[in-house]
């Protein structure tokens, strides 16, 4: 049986103009766009001049129990529902971190696949001079990122992202700082 259909005119929204002018962008000439892109070691002058959108990456410091400081470049992503470190990075620094344990969590990826978390860590994280207590899971990112600074950590440091200036304002109980991409 074939479904019947009628041509229906969409309702007219009284708040919007009936004529919409489309403004061409640089993306009009690109056939393939990376929806989730990492790997910009440094933002180039050409990228800035072209007003290209680049991932927000900033160095953070994870503090070990004996005063060790593990520095890693983190991808700040308010769409990630967990903070995470790539297994390849974790294997190199876990002896400095302490406070880690096996994890029972399973993580659903953007493509729907489910992966086991290898470990979890709880401790103090420093971002731009601001110190927050945080935790992260450990799994293989496939080389996509070293550390994923997801929404739970962004909430812990009371982050406010200003997309116009490509900066994030963070704070703890006693101080605040602005970090720039």
Describe this protein's structure.
There is one protein chain. The chain has helices at 45-49, 87-97, 151-156, and strands at 56-63, 69-76, 84-86, 100-101, 106-108, 114-116, 119-127, 130-139, 147-149, 160-162, 167-171, 176-180. It has 181 residues and is mainly beta. Strand 7 (119-127) and strand 8 (130-139) form a beta hairpin. Residues 1-23 and 30-41 have low confidence and may be disordered.
Content of β-strand: 25-35%
The percent range for helix content is 10-25%
Compute the average pLDDT. 80
Distance between the termini: 56 Å
Label the overall shape. Answer: globular
Give me the side-by-side strand order of the main sheet: 1-2-9-3-8-7
Q: Uncertain regions: pLDDT < 50 for 5+ in a row?
A: 1-23, 30-41
Helix/strand-derived category reads mainly beta
Number of DSSP E strands: 12
Largest sheet: 6 strands, mixed, barrel
Question: Helix and strand succession?
Answer: HEEEHEEEEEEHEEE
Task: Please give the radius of gyration in angstroms.
Answer: 21 Å
Number of helices: 3
List keywords for this structure.
181 residues; six-stranded mixed beta barrel; disordered N terminus; mainly beta; three-stranded antiparallel β-sheet; globular; 12% helix; single chain
């Amino acid at each position: 049986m074939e479904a019947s259909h009628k041509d229906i005119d969409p309702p007219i929204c009284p708040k919007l103009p009936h004529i919409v002018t489309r403004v061409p962008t640089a993306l009009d000439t690109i056939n393939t766009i990376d929806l989730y892109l990492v790997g910009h070691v440094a933002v180039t002058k050409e990228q800035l001049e072209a007003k290209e959108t680049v991932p927000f990456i900033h160095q953070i410091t994870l503090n070990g129990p004996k005063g060790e400081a593990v520095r890693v470049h983190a991808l700040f992503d308010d769409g990630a529902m967990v903070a995470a470190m790539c297994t390849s990075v974790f294997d190199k620094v876990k002896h400095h971190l302490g406070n880690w344990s096996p994890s029972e969590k399973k993580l659903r990826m953007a493509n729907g696949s489910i992966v086991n978390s290898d470990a979890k860590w709880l401790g103090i994280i420093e971002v731009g001079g601001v110190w927050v207590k945080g935790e992260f899971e450990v799994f293989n990112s496939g080389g996509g990122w070293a550390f994923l600074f997801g929404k739970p950590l962004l909430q812990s440091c009371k982050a406010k992202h200003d997309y116009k200036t490509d900066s994030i304002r963070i704070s703890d109980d006693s101080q605040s700082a602005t970090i720039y991409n």
